[in-house]
Specification:
The protein is α/β, with parallel strands linked by helices. About 40% of the residues lie in helices and about 15% in strands. An eight-stranded parallel barrel has the order 1-2-3-4-5-6-7-8, surrounded by six helices. Strand 1, helix 1 and strand 2 form a beta-alpha-beta unit. The longest helix is centred in the C-terminal third of the chain and has 19 residues. It starts with 12 loop residues before the first strand and ends in a 6-residue tail after the last helix. The N terminus is likely disordered.
Length: about 260
């Protein structure tokens, strides 16, 4: 099986975004299953993104394992009168990663490019690893604007950085594929990941682009993981619905891990 992330020694990464799913007991059960299935899988970083109320549970249940926990969102201010918000600084010590700029945050919660940039900076300042999501809608793709949208979102989020911090990973998530059970074709996924890498090279240089981890996200399943793992420009996957099924998510991680993680 082709292994992701072999170029320039990039280590593959698979993230599981649970979105607004699971009760507390369901979440605890799923975390235990994932630890049993995936702890110790070699050559890959695996991160789960549970809903905010279950982050501490996930942190405690995964203590001492190779799996990591991420938050689905955070506020960029360190503290303040922001009812219902949780800051990146508060999450430090509970999670290692945070999603930034997911399309559902942009579309459903009307988060602008400026907000995305502020959160990415706050995550880095708090010692967290940002996983930045970029991608076009179906209408934008039909108008031939996919590259322009990716470039705008990516450059806005990274604005102000003098160099690309190695903790930053980017997920190309075509909005038209998310939640529809229909992944982009390998050529479409490669096109999007390659576009991200080209923009990073233009902004931060060829070496930074060669080191950056770029994932594909958008209805990733066990059936599509093998092809996506072989993308020349890709280094793993950001998984949605399939991450709620332990056996399927484990299968995806094994597909992405070099030589099945052995």
């Amino acid at each position: 099986m082709p292994a992701a992330g072999g170029v320039q020694g990039r280590r593959p990464l698979v993230g599981g975004n649970w979105k607004m799913h699971t009760t507390r007991e369901e979440a605890r059960s799923l975390v235990r299953e994932l630890r049993s299935e995936l702890d110790g899988l070699e050559g890959i970083d695996i991160v789960i993104f549970p809903p905010a109320p279950w982050l501490a549970d996930a942190h405690d249940l995964l203590a001492g394992s190779t799996l990591r926990v991420g938050a689905q969102h955070a506020h960029w201010e360190r503290s303040g009168a922001f009812t219902g918000a949780v800051s990146a600084h508060q999450l430090a010590g509970v999670v290692d990663y945070v999603l930034v700029g997911h399309s559902e945050r942009r579309q459903l919660f009307h988060e602008c490019d400026r907000a995305t940039a502020r959160l990415l900076g706050a995550a880095l300042a708090a010692g967290l690893s940002p996983l930045l999501a970029v991608g076009e809608t179906a209408a934008e793709r039909d108008r031939g604007e996919a590259e322009a949208v990716i470039e705008r979102q990516l450059l806005a989020a990274l604005d102000g950085l003098q160099r690309l911090d190695g903790r930053v990973a980017v997920a190309y998530e075509p909005v038209w594929a998310i939640g529809r059970g229909e992944s982009a074709t390998p050529s479409q996924a490669e096109e999007g990941c390659a576009t991200v890498r080209r923009i990073v090279a233009e902004r931060f240089g060829a070496d930074a682009a060669a080191r950056a981890r770029v994932l594909y996200g958008g209805s990733v399943s066990a059936a599509t993981a093998g092809e996506l793992a072989a993308l020349p420009s890709g280094d793993g996957a950001l998984v949605g619905g399939a991450s709620l099924r332990a056996a399927e998510f484990a299968g995806i991680c094994r597909e992405v891990a070099p030589s099945g993680g052995g």
